[in-house]
Design brief:
With about 120 residues, this protein is an all-beta fold. About 0% of the residues lie in helices and about 50% in strands. The strands form two sheets. A six-stranded mixed sheet has the order 2-10-9-4-5-6, with no helix packed on it.
Amino acid sequence: QVHVEESGGGSVQTGQSLRLSCVIARLPFDDYAMGWFRQAPGKEREGISCISWSGGSTYYVDSVKGRFTISRDNAKKTLYLQMNQLKPEDTGMYYCATVDSPYPCTQAPQGFWGQGTQVTVSS
């Protein structure tokens, strides 16, 4: 069965950086658009960045534009999210998932999801 695993989360201070990774096994990775989703405490999960299967198209929610960069390495079946200039409002659980397209960056009805990695940003 498909296995999705995120890593790279942690506790940092405002202004610092983190790089999240997501490795997928037993899935034709380069057939799928991919996305990063965030669930902040007490809030609904939202798509913050998505990327097409080739990496040629990307989407960012306004709150992370200019600070986060999504990328993928299809040979390694790995999705990345470089997060710079982190803010306390970036705190949350970050999930990697397959999506139907990079825009809209929303959950796919038949998407594959990981268990998430926690990011905590303190002021």
